[in-house]
Amino acid sequence: MFQKKVILISFLFFFIVIFFHYQGWFVTVETALQTILGKGSRGVYTFNNDIKNYFARWVSYRNLFEENKKCLEKISSLSIKQGELAQIQDENKILRSSLNFLKKENNFVMANVIGKAPDPINNVLLIDKGLKDGLKEGLGVLAEEGILIGKIIKVEEKNSQIRIITDNESKIAVSILNPDQASGIMSGEHNLRLLLTMIPLTENIKPGDKVVTSNLDSGIKKGMLIGQIESVQKELYQPFQSAIVKPAVDLNKLNIIYVLLD
């Protein structure tokens, strides 16, 4: 009985709603509902579009950032390669200059290394040329590549002694091939390496700078390559800086040398 009443009431309610709708009595209510639902739909649509646009812009910015990063890496790589190429060209220019010097220089004596002085403390080599060949103390000695390796320190009739630049007692006035053409004193250290000192702090020197002979040493011509700066040391409250120089040739593998005459 109760179910029949519910069905009857539902039918009557549905019939009344249909009747009122066709009579136009629900127009205001329906319009209000459509407006509210329409605004909600537009809000949801707009919100969805904003979210999509945000993520699209984020992806675009991320891609742009990655592309810029790759471009910067390529530019950096090209700059490094250009720097390396310029350095190699400079080195080749210096080596060609040294070799051309030997070709043009007629006033030199070629000699063979025949041994090493018995003194274990000093780095001194013996050569097979001496007084009879026009040699004398103080003359500069070059390797086959035209690179300065030492000085004549003792001369006898048929042989001589060369003090190698890494010898503890070796001291040579040098110039640095940087924009300021800085100068200093290069000395040997423990027969192992070269120490460049007396360089003013105002001079801008750096690893890779070439070191050549200056015109302040009698018996040694200006511009002979010696090596390149390996590291630079600066100390607070000191007026000078120093540097470690790597020789341009292996000083332990000298067989033929050239003594430059006056």
Automatic annotation (TrEMBL):
Acetylation as UniProt keyword: no
Keyword Cell wall biogenesis/degradation: no
Entry-linked InterPro entries: Cell/Rod_1, Cell/Rod_MreC_2, MreC, MreC_beta-barrel_core
Transmembrane segments: 7-26
A Pfam family reported for this protein in Swiss-Prot or TrEMBL: MreC
Assigned keywords, A-Z: Cell shape, Membrane, Transmembrane, Transmembrane helix
GO BP terms in the entry: regulation of cell shape
Annotated Rod shape-determining protein MreC beta-barrel core domain residues: 113-260
Gene Ontology cellular component terms for the protein in this record: plasma membrane
Family: Belongs to the MreC family.
Protein name: Cell shape-determining protein MreC
Taxonomic source organism: Candidatus Magasanikbacteria bacterium GW2011_GWA2_42_32
